[in-house]
Structure formats: C-alpha cells, structure tokens
C-alpha cells in the first residue's frame, strides 16, 4: 500500500509539476517575443512582500546594481515573463528583454530529489541549472539535442532486454488503471480528477470483473487485457493527456515524457527503448495514435475526445 501512496503523490504532485521544457517550435523572433510575454508565473509570487525582487533574483554584478537604484514600481522587468533558463534584464533604452540566466544564480537544490539527469548523462543540480545551461547552448547542435532525461541524479541504467520491453506496456497499462481507481477512491473531495474523468473511472471502479491491483503474472495481465479490454482504453488516453501539456498539441516530446520515468521505477530502464519504439514514424514525437498502439489499443478505439 505504501508503494501506492508514493505513486499517488508522484502523480498528483511531483511528477505532474516536474520540470518541463518549452521547446522552441520555430526560430522566428516573433514567436519568441510572444512566448516571453506570457505571464504564467508572475515573478511577484515568489517574492515576499517588501523584498526587492531584483535583488532576490539577480543579486550580483554591475547591471544588477543599476537596476536596484531604480524605483521598483517602474521596473519594466517586474511583470515581464521569461521562459525557463532566461531572466529579464533591461537594455540601454530601459526595455525589458530575456537573456540567458547564469547557472550560478540558480537557487541551490534542497535535496537530491531536485537533481535532474540530462540526455547528456550529466547531473544538473536543479532544473534551473539545466535550463540555464541549455539556454547558453541555444543555437548550437549540442543545445538542440540536450533535454531533460529523468528526475534525479544520473545513474547507471541497465539495458532493457527484449522480453522486458514486451512486458512494459502490459505492466504499465495495468498500473495506469490502478492509479486511476486509487485516485477515484481517495478523491471524493479533492480535485485530482475532474468530473468527466470521474465518470469514466467510476465505470471501471464499479466493474466487478476488474482485476484488483497486485503483483500479477504476465499471463494473467495478458488474459485480463483480453477479457476486460474496455477498462484499459480510458487509462491509456488519460495518461497521454496528463503528459501532453507543454504544449498540449496531441504529440509527446521527449521532455513531456520525462515525468513518467519517475513513478515507473521498476521498469524504468525500459522507458527509453519503449518510447523510441512507440514513435513508429520516427519523427521524435509520440502521437496519440502511436501511443495507443504501443499499449495494444485497437485503432478504432483511439479517440481524441477521451482526453478530458
Ligand atoms: C551515466 O552516468 C552514470 C553516473 O555518473 C554512470 O554510472 C553511467 O554509466 C553513465 N551512463 C552512460 C550511458 O554513460
Ligand atoms: Ca505536446
Ligand atoms: Ca511519431
């Protein structure tokens, strides 16, 4: 049961709020500007009332001192949002602009859980350090290829064997179904599931034929998938929707998939191969159709409207 609680926490909080990377879709400057102006997390929120946000955020070097001398009220950077890895600075004309953050200005990690492993197999102290580093490499091939790989420090990941790769979707779709049922059971007042999702899960929850959570053999998992196929359709769609948020465009990027690794520790070493093979057209995105096929759903059961 304890394991389940950990999974739940992962799902409800940590994993969903896991650092995600906003991938630049185009190099056009117009897009850049639009993205940077979006006020997602107003900088104010993180700052105590009365504190000088400029000092809190930057706190060094000449430019910072210039800014500090200005009236904070008039600081155009205050409500100017920069994407991860960048911070706002003023140019000579007092116009705010986003520049790469110096990784050394990132707040230090409060624990190992904040470490992240990049696809370069380097451990980054926090996601802030990662994005600042990636920003500095912007425009280079190396920077383009650098993504967050998984949460936690880099470690040795054993190779995924063929037979394990086959088990992966079987275990995962069973796990997804159990996660949803558990969320449903515990979530009468919280908002872990929305109303539409609750209606769907209710049907699974109340079905007496449902295979209860447990350490089942692969044969039993396979048999249950045959017998109770319909119960798996929604969980597979649900997970796709949970991951497809940065942006929610019907495709999963490598980075959008990274939160999934954390809760799937027992099969973790197969995630990379699994997702590589899911991307059947090899365009580096896992589309909903590809995702569903990976989990054994039939083509006619893939339904965008189930992502609710
Ligand atoms: C990645 O780094 C970890 C820890 O530093 C190491 O054990 C592992 O072998 C590395 N993996 C690869 C593929 O180099
Ligand atoms: Ca997406
Ligand atoms: Ca694809």
From TrEMBL:
InterPro entries linked: EF-hand-dom_pair (IPR011992), EF_Hand_1_Ca_BS (IPR018247), Fol_N (IPR003645), Follistatin/Osteonectin_EGF (IPR015369), Kazal_dom (IPR002350), Kazal_dom_sf (IPR036058), Osteonectin_CS (IPR001999), SPARC/Testican_Ca-bd-dom (IPR019577)
Any one cellular-component term (Gene Ontology): extracellular space
SMART domains, per the entry: FOLN, KAZAL
Pfam families: FOLN, Kazal_1, SPARC_Ca_bdg
Limits of the Kazal-like domain: 99-156
Signal peptide, first to last residue: 1-17
GO molecular function: calcium ion binding; collagen binding; extracellular matrix binding
Domain of life: Eukaryota
Keywords: Calcium, Disulfide bond, Extracellular matrix, Glycoprotein, Metal-binding, Secreted, Signal
Subcellular location: Secreted, Extracellular space, Extracellular matrix
Similarity field: Belongs to the SPARC family.
PANTHER family on file: BM-40, SPARC OSTEONECTIN
Name this protein carries in UniProt: Secreted protein, acidic, cysteine-rich (osteonectin)
